[in-house]
Amino acid sequence: MKKLCILGAGSWGTAQSILLHQNGHQVVVWAGPDDDIDTIVKTGENLRYLPGVRIPKEIIWSRNLAEAVQGAQAVILAVPSQVLREVCVELKPHLGSGVLLVNTAKGLEIKSGMRLSQVAEDVFGPDIRDYFAVLSGPSHAEEVARQMPTVLTVAAYRKEIACTIQDIYMSGVFRVYTNPDVPGVELGGALKNVIALATGIVQGLEYGDNVIAALMTRGLAEMTRMGVAMGGHHRTFNGLSGMGDLVVTCCSRHSRNRRAGELIGQGYSLEDCLNSIGMVVEGAHTARVLFHLAEDYRVDMPITRACYNILYNQIPPIQAVEELMKRGKKHEIEEIVNDTENW
């Protein structure tokens, strides 16, 4: 049994606490000032994020970060991507030598454009690489908390760290693969949110299944182009943290990004949409930073550009779809054309 500290009492932090407790670990959850842990302890439920899911009474809930982290073999980050730096800064004085740091958030930092492992390295220094891992893939908290079978990937710079985290999480309902490609695994989890937002928009426009399939397919190609440019391996984007996460985020009723897109397609403003969802919609943040990163890296990302224009330049969704459809003619897969003689 290991002592594990989860930072974040939202849906994903709560779901992980239940899973890891069931795996036989001692679990402490550190909650922010907006989380009502008194009600969680009193009712045995996280009524705000996971109503109807029973939380084992052995899980400890705390607002004291130093006490929560003390003695932990691993600290798990389950906070929104845009507050991850702030939480890491607060954590730094309390993170003991050799303690593993596992990021389970998905996104890019808006101000810097950094991947979240780069944010952690910026705060803790380069030595954190030896103890850092990222867990990602198709994983809605609502299903993990209810013990529905789930399969994810853990990436780390050191094989033994990835294998340790794999052992901590693996169970009869939770399978974990390992991958050395930290940038690729992170980027898959971040970039797919924009494609899910786009998928939701066309659903809100009631355009049907054909365009959804096209968006997901071309979206994966777009994710892969950008992911490789930013240091990921192209094969990673065909795996759980790329295609797997893309499928679930575009198709699931639990997806906040898809739901936000639906509201925008139905004519809601971004502000009204985010207020209606009531939780963080990472795709809205990622679209903004990714639009500028694509210009910096000179990577063609037409779907991301369309989302950015809808969200931040008030381009009507119908117009954005028409502009996508009227783009110049192209080959689907340039590599095949280049490798084919006399075609």
Task: Provide a descriptive summary of the structure in words.
The chain has helices at residues 11-22, 37-43, 65-69, 84-91, 116-124, 141-144, 159-169, 182-204, 209-229, 240-251, 256-265, 270-277, 282-297, 302-312, 317-325, 334-339, and strands spanning 3-7, 26-30, 60-62, 74-77, 100-103, 132-136, 150-156, 174-179. The protein is an alpha/beta fold and 343 residues long. The chain folds into 2 domains: 3-180, Rossmann fold (3-Layer(aba) Sandwich); 183-338, N-(1-d-carboxylethyl)-l-norvaline Dehydrogenase, domain 2 (Orthogonal Bundle), CATH 1.10.1040. An 8-stranded mixed β-sheet has the order 3-2-1-4-5-6-7-8, sandwiched between helices. β2 (26-30), α2 (37-43) and β3 form a beta-alpha-beta unit. α8 packs parallel to α11 and α13 (282-297) packs across α14.
